[in-house]
Amino acid sequence: MQATRLILIRHGETHWNADSRIQGHTDIALNDTGRWQAKRVAQALADEPKAAVYASDLQRAADTALAIAQAHAEGALQVRHHIGLRERAFGHFEGLSFDEIETRWPDDAHAWRTRVPHWTPVGGESLLQVRDRVQGTLDAIASAHIGEQLVLVAHGGILDMVYRLASRQEIQAPRTWHLGNAAINRLLWTPQGLSLVGWGDVRHLEQDSLDEQTA
């Protein structure tokens, strides 16, 4: 069977994550917690075979990927940036908190909450557009690495769509899965589609796993 093993990682935490602000394509850096998370996931994956490390070109994902690539036990790897791994573009929502969006644009907020597939934030992307972008990006990357294992670092909205594609969930289905910052998610790609291997592993982020080097 032609298969590519994928390890998907959501970037580490940012201040806007902590403040529940919509980031989208806005280029926000990791905060102190996010940098710690990047270091921990890098250590957890250091001994894993990796043919390549791919990442969104947005800083929060790129810096998380850089930590993973540099910690590779067999020698540092270069991060390959791919615009197709960027977060969903949220247009006029970006920079705002959930409460601010509800107050300013209640109709848009309702369409967003209820996951209307064709609804598009002004200057942003619809869920259908994101699904097509994610599918095309994964197909392009994975098909170039048949028989190998890759690490891909992206964003919450992208990982949400990956989970839906792999589990055959509808776009409108309520989310019941976790999208934690720096969690480890494993999938298998074949020309027939994606399948889930493991999701939401955060053991490397548990406080009791800290040692004197990371405390």
Structure description:
- With 215 residues, the chain is an alpha/beta fold.
- The protein has one domain (4-209): Rossmann fold.
- The chain has 7 helices and 6 strands.
- Strands 3-2-4-1-5-6 form a 6-stranded mixed β-sheet.
- Helix 3 (59-70) links the parallel strand 2 (52-55) and strand 3 (79-81).
- Helix 4 (98-104) crosses helix 5 (106-113).
- The protein is globular and about 50 Å long.
- The N and C termini lie far apart (44 Å).
Unreliable sequence segments: 208-215
> How many E-type strands?
6
Strand order of the largest sheet: 3-2-4-1-5-6
CATH superfamily: Phosphoglycerate mutase-like
User: Which structural category do the helix and sheet elements fall into?
Assistant: alpha/beta
Distance, first to last CA: 44 Å
Provide the helix percentage.
25-40%
SS strand fraction: 15-25%
Looking at the chains present, what oligomeric state does this protein adopt? Answer: single chain
Mean pLDDT over the residues? 94
Major beta sheet summary: 6 strands, mixed
Over all CA atoms, what is the radius of gyration?
17 Å
Helical stretch count? 7
CATH architecture: 3-Layer(aba) Sandwich
Structural domain tally: 1
One letter per element, helices H and strands E, the order comes to: EHHEHEHHHEHEE
CATH classification class: Alpha Beta
CATH fold-level assignment: Rossmann fold
Shape: globular
